[in-house]
């Protein structure tokens, strides 16, 4: 599949590399056409690179791996025409560190970043997922032993099914993928980040994740 | 130990009953001295009941099991003199359902309810815990199979150790009790409630909890 990964940071690099390894035609998108990280990633991984608009325009599926505080601006740069009708996987978190640690989770209009993006791009099929864990775990869930979870939120059932299939190709078992409901449920997973950061403080730089255990 | 449980709702009843079963002298506190639920609970469980001030004043340890939106007023009714120097276990969550579901988590001053209470009662040793699960699981963790977690947040290490011992008497293993740090870490667990509510929507009325799984 032709996939655009928007964002050249650690999360974007990790997802883009995994997707390329799985045989997808990946274009890494960034603000400028000559971004050094994107160019290097493309050279190292047999991928392509370009502006956000170039990457999204050529893709069948788009991954938002930019920082949550700039995601709306990034999608506006990509443009509604490039995003129309496409599945967009939103893995971003909007964390404001301006007052230090712990950061504040920015909740646009009292909701979630994912809903803010959906409102701005109503014809894009946004699915929030993978935003509750370290990027190493996103693409290699077996790094954490036993049962643990990845969550899905979105308004389009077909889009969620497509994203779940992609997650399975990453190594997630169906029993680990929990569909929380429509996109408003992204509020719940975006608000998990403060706990993740505290657990990181307690556990240190090890792979970990949240598991839902039911009787 | 002499323990005051403030609040006559389901959470308060559950905790008060467990504590009485374990041999503690429990007083259920409520707004008025003649609260029907508190009187009934006391009659059924060999406990006492009284106003918030009566209950807290006589207690060595206080449990705040009131709704988070009224907790500050409840502690003010109990009075600083009744709370001074005591460990206060805060299990409350401040959820505003005025705009329907999902509720908004109220975060006073951008922080947590627990910190708001601590600021108002600086000489009380507040420990936030048990606020991330159903009340059935709070007092009987074995209802959920295998590993799952309860979190501790507080500024006073001795108070946290005392609360951890109480949790162990409820059936929590030491390996299940995760100390997240000072009371500002209560922000992380208070923000878990939206996920809990979504999971309740998915799983239905079964006992479940969050587990932290690390490599």
From TrEMBL, chains A, B:
Swiss-Prot/TrEMBL keywords: Oxidoreductase
Domain Pyrroline-5-carboxylate reductase catalytic N-terminal stretches: 2-93
Keyword Cytoplasm in record: no
Annotated InterPro entries: NAD(P)-bd_dom_sf, P5C_Rdtase_cat_N, STEAP_metalloreductase
Gene3D superfamilies in UniProt: NAD(P)-binding Rossmann-like Domain
Pfam families cross-referenced by the UniProt entry: F420_oxidored
Gene Ontology MF terms: oxidoreductase activity
SUPFAM superfamilies in the record: NAD(P)-binding Rossmann-fold domains (SSF51735)
PANTHER family given in the database record: DUDULIN-RELATED (PTHR14239), REDUCTASE (PTHR14239:SF10)
Protein name: NADP oxidoreductase
Organism the protein comes from: Streptomyces dysideae
């Amino acid at each position: 599949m032709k996939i655009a990964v928007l964002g050249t940071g650690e999360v974007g690099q990790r997802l883009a590399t995994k997707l390329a390894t799985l045989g997808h035609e990946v274009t890494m998108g960034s603000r400028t056409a000559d971004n050094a990280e994107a160019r290097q990633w493309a050279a190292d991984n047999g991928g392509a690179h370009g502006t956000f608009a170039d990457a999204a325009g050529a893709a069948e599926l788009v991954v938002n791996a930019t920082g949550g505080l700039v995601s709306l601006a990034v999608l506006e740069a990509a443009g509604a025409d490039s995003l129309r009708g496409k599945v967009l996987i939103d893995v971003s978190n909007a964390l404001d560190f301006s007052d230090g640690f712990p950061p504040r989770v920015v909740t646009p209009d009292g909701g979630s970043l994912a809903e803010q993006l959906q409102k701005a791009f109503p014809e894009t099929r946004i699915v929030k997922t993978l935003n509750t864990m370290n990027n190493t775990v996103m693409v290699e869930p077996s790094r954490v032993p036993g049962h643990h979870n990845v969550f899905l939120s979105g308004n389009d059932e077909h889009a969620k099914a497509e994203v779940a299939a992609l997650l399975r190709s990453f190594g997630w078992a169906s029993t680990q993928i929990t569909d929380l409901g429509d996109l408003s449920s992204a509020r719940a997973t975006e608000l998990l980040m403060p706990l993740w950061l505290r657990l990181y403080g307690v556990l240190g730089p090890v792979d970990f994740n949240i598991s839902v255990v039911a009787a």
